[in-house]
Amino acid sequence: MEIPFIKMHGLGNNYIYLDLFQFDIQEELLPKLAQQVSNVNTGIGSDGLILIHPSKIADVGMRIFNKDGSEGMSCGNGLRCTAKYAYEYGIVDHKNFRIEAKAGVVEAEVSVNETNKVGDITINMGAPILNRTAIPMVGENDEIVINEPFKVQDVELNVTAVSMGNPHAVFFVERIEDAPLYEQGPVIEKDKRFPEGVNVEFVEVVSPNELNFRVWERGSGVTQACGTGACAAVVAATLNEHVRKNETITVHLQGGDLKIRWDQDGQVWMTGGAEIVATGSYHF
Ligand SMILES: N[C@@H](CCC[C@H](N)C(=O)O)C(=O)O
After folding, report:
1. Mutation test residue for ligand 1: of 75, 215, 251, the one with most atoms within 8 Å of CB
2. InterPro entries from the entry (predicted)?
3. Could you report the predicted ipTM of this complex, rounded to two decimals?
4. What separation in angstroms does the CA of 92 have from each of 6, 89, 101, 110, 182?
């Protein structure tokens, strides 16, 4: 089977995208396809697979499959790439439109240059979900989890838990270079206190408007960027009083910067770029 694909990335967080406005694919093939295309040696090489599809409730739909074939609820970088593709390839003909993800519908706004190419994209990622059981995280109460002691393999850490439609465990560190990304990331991802697994973020507070950030993504491992993770980091930093609500915070990810703002009405705004890398045909 020949499957037409587009490869795109947001700050190095790269996925193989299928434009299901052009063709359809059987549901049961998707987890295996995600695993195969993601493999850099025997496939194309990516952090996973994203479907851009018609939606009944929004202008365009997006579904994300991680590298291991599991399906995620949302993807910040994937939403920006979907927005760029939808505008540049004529799926939408206006600069403000709605994208459906499994976690819900978000609003996107693209900035466009004189040659009609999309530059920065802003997405209203909605309000974070903070109650423990909704993350979901196991524990004795349903309060917000802020800087709670969290022991992993005899190491004492403190976790702040945030859902941006998908679960994030945020840990503040003194120096981002010392973040135990490869040691603790895979262990925390599968820790039983997070029954659905978790995306793991280490964050250094650089200033009241700047964070350094590294991520171990659920289902994909270390990636160069995570949009929902950057939003979760800003929410966690606000809850811990490292930064203030309604300020625009620059998050330095491995692949570049995102601007994130948690506004007074509780909405989290994400602004950043997206790039189309290649188009081609995958032999499946
Ligand atoms: N890279 C993404 C998040 C992708 C899904 C995540 N790994 C999960 O399973 O929740 C982003 O940019 O937000």
Report:
1. 75
2. DAP_epimerase_AS (IPR018510), DAP_epimerase_DapF (IPR001653)
3. 0.99
4. 18, 8, 16, 11, 40
Q: Given this model, what pLDDT does residue 157 score?
A: 97
State if residue 226 touches ligand 1 by the CB under 6 angstroms criterion: yes
77 CB under 6 A from ligand 1? Answer: yes
* pLDDT tens, position by position, 116-126: 999 999 999 99
Beta strands of 68-142 (E only): which ranges?
71-72, 96-101, 104-112, 118-124
Q: What is the pLDDT of residues 58-79, one digit of tens each?
A: 999 999 999 999 999 999 999 9
Write down the pTM of the prediction. Answer: 0.98
Split at pLDDT 50, 70, 90, the class of 16 is very high
CATH 3.30.1440.10 is the classification of domain 132-266:
no
Q: Match domain 2-123+272-283 to its CATH number in 3.30.43.10, 3.30.300.20, 3.30.70.20, 3.10.310.10.
A: 3.10.310.10
- Domain extents in the chain: 2-123+272-283, 132-266
2-123+272-283 matches 132-266 in fold? yes
In whole angstroms, what is the distance from residue 220 CA to residue 207 CA? 30
